[in-house]
Design goal:
Chain B: Keywords: 4Fe-4S, Iron, Iron-sulfur, Metal-binding. Chain B: Residues 239-268 form the 4Fe-4S ferredoxin-type domain. Chain B: InterPro entries: 4Fe4S_Fe-S-bd, 4Fe4S_Fe_S_CS, ET_IronSulfur_Cluster-Binding. The complex is a heterotrimer of chains A (213), B (360) and C (407). Chain A is of the alpha+beta class and 213 residues long. Chain A is 29% helix and 8% strand. Chain A contains eight helices and four strands. Chain A has a two-stranded antiparallel sheet. Chain A is elongated and about 110 Å long. Chain B folds into two domains: 58-136, no CATH class; 145-360, Alpha-Beta Plaits. The two termini of chain B are 32 Å apart. Chain B has twelve helices and twelve strands. Chain B is of the alpha+beta class and 360 residues long. In chain B, helix 4 (60-82) packs across helix 5 and helix 5 packs across helix 6 (111-129). In chain B, a hairpin with a 5-residue loop joins strand 5 and strand 6. Chain C has 407 residues and is mostly helical. Chain C has one domain: Up-down Bundle (Formate dehydrogenase/DMSO reductase fold). Chain C is built from 15 helices and no strands. Chain C has helices at 2-19, 23-49, 64-77, 80-88, 95-119, 142-169, 176-202, 215-241, 248-278, 285-292, 301-319, 321-325, 327-345, 350-353, 369-397. Classes of the chains: A alpha+beta (213), B alpha+beta (360), C mainly alpha (407).
Chain lengths: 213, 360, 407
């Protein structure tokens, strides 16, 4: 009697052990230690996909940007600026159009209020060139195209610039698939008041409240 | 409490901070979550199922009908399909219902079978509502492994992602099902979810808080998939963890197995107003569900498989959400993983989520 | 061919036996039928409206049904405590009790299956689980293991007593060589069903309250206390209401089993409490919620302390020979123990596993009346089945039910 008992125990353990074997190799991706290993090894011979996010871009115009190792598209800006080119009004250098006696000129840009850094640091001419209103200027006086205004921002916001180039800051347009079209700084931030204003959440879940009462 | 060097739990003690408004905003603009703000909603007592049913006046006949209804479904389908009187459409509908009831597991279907079931579902919707939907059965593409990164310094708690998700994925409006939760975390408390609030309603971002979103993390070693007794949920080759709603038996074992609160159950028949239904659907994604089955975030499979971003990524106004192909060395998601300090939730469980968090 | 004829006669005879009885018997069966009807009505509402009529939510996604299922697996497994001494160790004292124990196991298993089905969101597609026509995710899913072991155990517990009773019905002795292998397997199988059911929970890394190595052994200990306790009570009722003779010695021996199991169960409880509260970690929150409440939420406190009080009282009573050997006190202790473990293995185990949720949120669980209706309906079904099985078995054993020959 004892012997048959023993046999049963052994066979039962055998079945259990076999089960465990199945259990431990049920993940077919068992050859990888972690998801990072998997990503590394599987992307070694990455040949791209047939997918494209072009169809989801809509009809926006883009310009190509190459910064360091990164090359991607950003939305074209100039056509979205009201009354570009600026020289249509700014026919003379800025200092000649300013001043109390200039009755002939309308007051303009009254709605632009600067809340960007301290006055000690920044004013209009930090970025705008009074002698060439159609373009922006860098701190050293180099010309910067309105389409590439990020070059202006990156002078101070170098960390954000790094992240933006890599894709960690900002937002993509269309989809994840190539071509990469990223929003540029001014697509989200008003350059004159770059801080994002607080607002109310888009929704409130009343069911959750009931559940947790 | 704070000078203790060991871990201790705060049991039973109502925290002072939580009785006030959580955002610490002194201006009074913060509308507190628990009090005032939703008192009106709280008062509206929801009846439990028993009352709902027993308070309904029901004559014996309808009670009897209810009792036998479940048994009659199958028989009804047969009799309608054989009946000479029933119209062609009714017959076709019964035929579709019959075939849908006894179809196999989507995971094991051939491409033709997949197409057939998708066609049936489209036709069935057309017969029922007279409207057309587009349903895809697009498979995973080679060389794609989806990954997601979430910037906890950028998220401001606007919940635009939640709204977009609900709309895109045809989630039940009655139970206010949401795949995404945004947790309002207190600065200086680390990742203490116990102190966090995921149902705030006040101006955001609240001072002294940061926001962290959770949803299904599409684990590479998903515990939910292992436990399913019928393989109604599985991991696709592009890393998406999906559910075949028609194969699910509704045992909710996967829900118990998920450490991330990633799964949702249809406790009653989900309802979406006809005009709000997203008609661009995928079999494994946002097609309309039925009662008694699991569902979850699929990274918007109907969008992501064609190269588009998931709805939450697209809706986020802060750019806190980054989505892409982990196998593409030049993708933005890869740049984030390689250059930012990333972490994942509950990494010690060995589930290998494909959802990373990072800070600026 | 002859066997078929005997079987037909057995069915006919047992039909006659179970439809005839004393007034009390009819009242009892009528009462159970009434409860079952209520349960069916509640279930029809659940079928119609979905599981939203229960108290379960996305937060606490298993409730009363799975709690009862877990407990009843234990009750079913407990039959082994009678089978082993009777068939394997040849202890005759248990012989009268074992058929009753196995009948109880059958009824408990049917109830288990009924509870699982009641808990399903889509009972109409349960065929998806049947190997061959559906997809059976074996061995990956512990639920499939559970399906196998429960059905296997059900088969064993139907076939062994059936064989014995079938032989006795014809006035012959049952052959050891036929039922002994089955009895031996069922001993291991009983341990298996409860261990596998524990693994169902134990294997979830998402739920630290369940994910501990003691869960399985504690399941066994509590099952071997609650199950035989129920058997003692049932035997007491049968002794008093039928001519079936059960000796005091038998009941006292079973009481011994109950005592040891209850003591082991208490030791394990202490070990668990020590682990959770001596060095509490984040993973102890569920235990804190269960025993002391968390963030002002305290729905389970009265339940668990009632359970612990009942368990401790019962165990103390059972430990003293003088008290245990007094049958009235013994029955009282068994009732306490049964209720105590029902709470502990049900509400005290399943619900706190979900609380707090994965992100620390607490949503409490209270079953609705519909859920309770279905639950008592299934219990009534179990009692109904057991009464039928026991009545037939007792009549065969008493010799009242005999095959009338081949004429």
């Amino acid at each position: 009697m004892m012997k048959s008992n023993l046999n049963y125990i052994i066979s039962l353990l055998g079945v259990l052990f076999l089960g465990m074997q199945f259990q431990s190799c049920k993940h077919k991706e068992g050859e990888y230690h972690s998801i990072n290993d998997k990503i590394e090894s599987e992307s070694k011979n990455y040949h791209g996909t047939t997918l494209s996010s072009e169809a989801f871009l809509g009809d926006i115009k883009t310009v190509e940007v190459t910064e360091g190792a990164h090359s991607f598209l950003i939305p074209e800006r100039k056509s979205h600026i009201k009354s570009y080119a600026c020289t249509e009004c700014h026919s003379k250098p800025l200092n000649q159009m300013q001043g109390a006696d200039s009755e002939e000129y309308q007051k303009a840009h009254w709605d632009v209020k600067m809340i960007h850094a301290r006055e000690l640091t920044m004013n209009c001419i930090t970025c705008h060139d009074g002698n060439n209103m159609n373009e922006l200027k860098s701190l050293t006086g180099a010309r910067i195209d309105f389409n590439k205004s990020y070059q202006l921002c990156s002078q101070c916001h170098s960390n954000q610039f790094q992240d933006w180039k890599g894709g960690a800051h900002g937002k993509r347009i269309g989809g994840w698939a190539p071509p990469r079209v990223s929003m540029t700084c001014v697509n989200c931030h008003n350059p004159h008041q770059p801080a994002i204003q607080p607002k109310w959440p888009a929704r409130f879940n009343t069911q959750k409240v009931l559940e947790r009462k | 409490m704070s000078d203790k060097k060991w871990f201790s739990l705060n049991i039973g003690k109502e925290h002072k901070a939580s009785s006030k408004c959580g955002c610490g905003n002194a201006s009074g603009s913060c509308n507190s979550h628990d009090s005032g703000g939703n008192a009106g909603i709280g008062e509206e007592r929801v009846k439990d199922g028993f009352e709902q049913v027993f308070e309904v006046k029901m004559d014996r006949r309808s009670a009897f009908r209810k009792l036998t209804a479940s048994l009659m479904i199958g028989a009804g389908a047969v009799s309608t399909s054989c009946s000479m009187v029933a119209g062609d459409e009714a017959k076709e509908k019964a035929q579709i219902d019959w075939e849908e009831q006894f179809k196999g597991n989507y995971k094991l279907m051939t491409d033709d079978e997949k197409k057939a079931t998708v066609d049936r579902l489209v036709r069935s919707y057309q017969l029922r509502t007279g409207k057309n939907i587009k349903m895809s059965s697009k498979d995973a593409q080679e060389g794609v492994l989806f990954g997601y990164a979430f910037n906890i310094s950028k998220c401001q708690g606007y919940m635009d992602c939640v709204t977009a998700c609900v709309k895109e994925n045809n989630q039940d409006r009655n139970s206010q099902m949401e795949y995404i939760r945004i947790h309002e975390m207190k600065d200086g408390k680390g990742l203490d979810f116990g102190e966090a609030d995921d149902n705030y309603y006040h101006e955001v971002p609240a001072e002294g808080h940061f926001y962290l979103g959770t949803q299904c993390f599409h684990c590479d070693n998903p515990p939910c998939v292992d436990v399913c007794p019928v393989q109604a949920t599985w991991r696709e080759d592009d890393g998406l963890v999906v559910v075949d709603y028609d194969w699910c038996v509704g045992c909710r074992y996967c829900m118990a197995a998920c450490p991330y609160d990633g799964r949702r159950f249809n406790w009653s028949t989900p309802e979406v107003p006809e005009e709000e239904i997203n008609k661009n659907q995928h079999y494994l994604g946002n097609r309309l569900r039925k009662k008694g089955v699991m569902e979850k975030c699929t990274f918007c499979v109907q969008r992501s498989r064609s190269g588009q971003n998931p709805a939450c990524v697209e809706a986020c106004p802060t750019g806190a959400r980054i989505f892409g192909n982990l196998l593409d060395p030049n993708s933005t998601i890869r740049w984030v993983l390689e250059n930012k300090k990333v972490f994942r939730l509950k990494e010690d469980l060995g589930t290998e989520p494909k959802f990373w968090y990072f800070m600026d | 061919m002859r066997r078929l004829k005997v079987f037909k006669s057995l069915v006919v005879d047992s039909m006659r036996v179970i439809t005839h009885g004393s007034k009390n018997y009819h009242i009892w069966m009528g009462f159970l039928s009434f409860i079952m009807l209520i349960g069916m009505y509640c279930y029809s509402i659940q079928l119609d409206q979905g599981l939203s009529v229960t108290g379960m939510t996305d937060r606490v996604s298993w409730g009363l049904y799975i709690s009862n299922f877990t407990f009843l697996v234990g009750v079913a497994a407990a039959a082994v405590m009678l089978v082993m001494p009777t068939y394997v160790l040849k202890d005759i004292d248990f012989k009268q009790a074992v058929l009753i124990g196995e009948g109880l196991a059958v009824a408990a298993l049917i109830m288990c299956l009924a509870f699982v089905i009641a808990d399903m969101g889509g009972p109409s597609v349960l065929w998806h689980m049947i190997p061959g026509i559906g997809v059976f995710n074996f061995p990956s899913s512990m639920l499939t293991w559970d399906v196998i072991v429960l059905n296997g155990y059900l088969f064993l517990n139907i076939s062994i007593p059936f064989y014995i009773l079938f032989r006795h019905y014809q006035g012959r002795e049952a052959k050891h060589s036929v039922y002994l292998p089955g009895a031996l397997i069922s001993v291991f199988w009983a341990v298996g069903i409860h261990l596998v059911t524990a693994f169902l929970y134990q294997g979830l890394q998402a739920r630290p309250f369940w994910n501990n190595a003691l869960l399985g052994p504690r399941f066994l200990a509590s099952a071997f206390a609650a199950g035989p306790a129920l058997i003692i009570l049932v035997l007491a009722i049968i002794r008093n209401s039928t001519a079936f003779k059960i000796e005091d010695k038998t009941i006292k021996k079973i009481a011994m089993v109950v005592t040891v199991a209850a003591q082991v169960n208490l030791i394990m409880l202490i070990s668990e409490l020590f682990k959770e509260f001596y060095a509490p970690t984040h993973h102890s929150e569920s235990a804190y919620y269960l025993f002391f409440g968390l963030h002002g939420k305290s729905a389970l406190i009265p339940w668990i302390w009632t359970a612990i009080t009942l368990n401790v009282t019962a165990t103390v009573i059972l430990t003293f020979h003088k008290l245990r050997n007094n049958l009235r006190v013994l029955y009282f202790a068994c009732v306490l123990l049964f209720i105590g473990i029902w709470i502990e293995k049900g509400f005290g185990l399943i619900v706190p596993g979900f609380i707090p949720g994965p992100y620390g949120k607490i949503a409490e669980y209270t079953p609705t009346l519909i859920e309770i209706g279905v639950t008592i309906g299934i219990w009534a079904l179990g009692a109904f089945l057991f009464t039928i099985l026991a009545k037939t078995a007792i009549n065969i054993e008493l010799g009242k039910l005999r095959y009338k020959g081949d004429n």
